[in-house]
Amino acid sequence: MLGLSVLMWNICSVSELSSENMRTCFQIVNAYIYLSATDFLQNYAEGLCRSFCELLQDITNEGQVQVLKVVEIALKVSPILGAHMFQPLLPAVLRGVVDGEKYPVVMSTYLGITGRVLLQNSSFFSSLLTQMASECNQGIDQLLGNVIEMWVDRMDNITQPERRKLSSLALLSLLPSENSVIQDKFCGIVNICVEALHDVMTEDSDTGTFRDCMLMSQFEEPKLSDDEEPPTEQDKRKRLMALEDPVHSVSLQQFVYEKLKAQQALMGDQAFGLLMETVDTEIVQQLQQFLRGL
Description:
By secondary structure, the protein is mainly α.
């Protein structure tokens, strides 16, 4: 671990490195997170977070994305510990979402991190909102509404299907809710869900039913073509962790159905019907097609 300690010691100087060397440095860090997330985060994340906070103040957009991807991977692999260890950095991420970060790739990464926290560590997300609302002298519900609104508005910045499904799962996790702000944003949440369903659902031409193509099973071995290399140990670790990731273990189709039914049960048929009327008719028809048979 001595080499890793030297790497961590020198990471404050990463901003002075070439972009290629910076990328290599972060790849090493990411590999250690996949190798032993708990040990790595407990031993190195505090210092790493301090360095990242400094780096993000004076770094290129490409560099920002590399830094933020480390945080995103930590949250993916260890949602509770990752959020705790990188807590000082997360308010800036949420602020970037609310302020509407202009650089699309940075905004996409902000939303990926925010989605991880909201979906997999909701109590931490609530405390983060409370902290930011206090600092901004703003109501918590108003801040949440701003986050959802910007998320819906900038969904097109997210090009990776994994992050698009994550955004849908995360926003759906706010349901069922009696909160008027969340109900006001219901139309946008449903729009994002339908977009994500288009991204990840494949139709069986024989039965006409849909399947979430991002679901993974421990019983399914990835098929290799003749010119593909067999998976490395790192690839195997990533796959094992992906099996526990909601993006790969939760059916978006089923999750949408369950959350909408729960909202309907909470509100009653009439009130829920009025809420659904806020959604564009064509979107509702597409949604019904995806949920057919459930």
